[in-house]
Design goal:
By secondary structure, the protein is an alpha/beta fold. It has one domain: Rossmann fold, CATH 3.40.50.1470. It has six helices and seven strands. A seven-stranded mixed beta sheet has the order 2-3-4-1-5-7-6, sandwiched between helices. Strand 3 and strand 4 form a beta hairpin. Helix 2 packs parallel to helix 3 and helix 5 packs antiparallel against helix 6.
Length: about 180
């Protein structure tokens, strides 16, 4: 079993913001796999996808970014999922727009959704795909992450969403180490 979580904020107001990058990657994945998030429980929407006999949980927490750990920990506890099987996808201010980075562990890097998950699961040994949204030091961080991608960045941003979704699909058939080797280029 594996659990793949895309972080974001629910609701129309946040739909196309930089902070919804994890949700947007998840949308790409479910579109490519021709599935839908058909369950709502644990303050999340999710589905259980069977891939070559393995259950894969695709999840979007509905707790708002800063409390993502509430939904993730509740779902993992209920289904008895291990943090070894968890992969989280989210936006990263420290990466340029268009770049993705896969890591097996690390700090939250100031990303509050990841901080919530690390705090509630009690470990930073969590696989993650960070998708670059860039940063503008002249704009307060909250305003920047809750803002929309600039027109001049849209092409690179969409490529990053696509690449992150492809990494997730690749991961379904490969271990994470091999996935990192393939997509951290």
């Amino acid at each position: 079993m594996r659990i793949i979580v895309g972080l974001g904020n629910p609701g129309k107001k946040y739909e196309k913001t930089r902070h919804n990058t994890g949700f947007l990657v998840m949308d790409e994945v479910i579109k490519k796999l021709e599935i839908e998030l058909d369950k709502e429980k644990f303050e999340a929407i999710y589905t259980i996808y069977k891939h070559k006999g393995e259950k894969i949980y695709f999840v979007k927490p509905l707790t708002y970014m800063n409390n993502s750990g509430l939904a993730v920990s509740a779902l993992m506890n209920y289904y008895k999922l291990s943090t070894e099987d968890l992969l989280v996808v989210y936006d990263d201010l420290d990466l340029p727009v268009g770049k993705i980075r896969l890591r097996e562990s690390g700090s939250c890097g100031g990303q509050n959704g990841m901080r919530s998950i690390i705090d509630l699961l009690g470990t930073n040994e969590i696989k993650r795909i960070r998708v670059g949204i860039g940063n503008d030091k002249l704009i307060p961080t909250v305003d920047y992450v809750l803002g929309k991608v600039l027109p001049e960045d849209k092409k690179a941003y969409k490529e990053a969403l696509k690449k992150a979704s492809e990494a997730i699909i690749y991961y379904l058939d490969n271990d994470f180490s091999k996935t990192m080797s393939e997509y951290n280029k």
